[in-house]
Specification:
Layout: H1 6-16, E1 23-25, H2 32-45, E2 47-52, H3 59-69, E3 73-78, E4 81-85
Parallel strand pairs: 1-2
Antiparallel strand pairs: 2-4, 3-4
Amino acid sequence: MNSLTSGQRRYLRGLANQLDPVILIGKGGASESVLNAVDDALEAHELIKIRFNDFKDEKKALTDHIARETQAEVAGLIGHVAILYRRHPDPKKRKIQLPDPAGAPGGSGRKIPGTKPDSSKG
């Protein structure tokens, strides 16, 4: 999966504010059953939160491991909560439209208030 830009990660963290953690990491750590649950949750929701009840000192490494194993992107790690994103492979089932990355064709990825689009572009 392509890496997220900082603007896209910020956007996803904003969306995640209203979400509750759907996965809890306990004494079992990132077991196969946890990885399967994360995979299923990402398939259903695209954006999820994972709460670390245990392994708090290893949360960064575990978050990276979980993301790698589930082909997800880490959108953020705030306190003891990780935010993971994986775009749904079926365009019809995608729930989240990421902002264009800065420098992408067709725009800078930024909107400046009070300005009008350049109408000279064809």
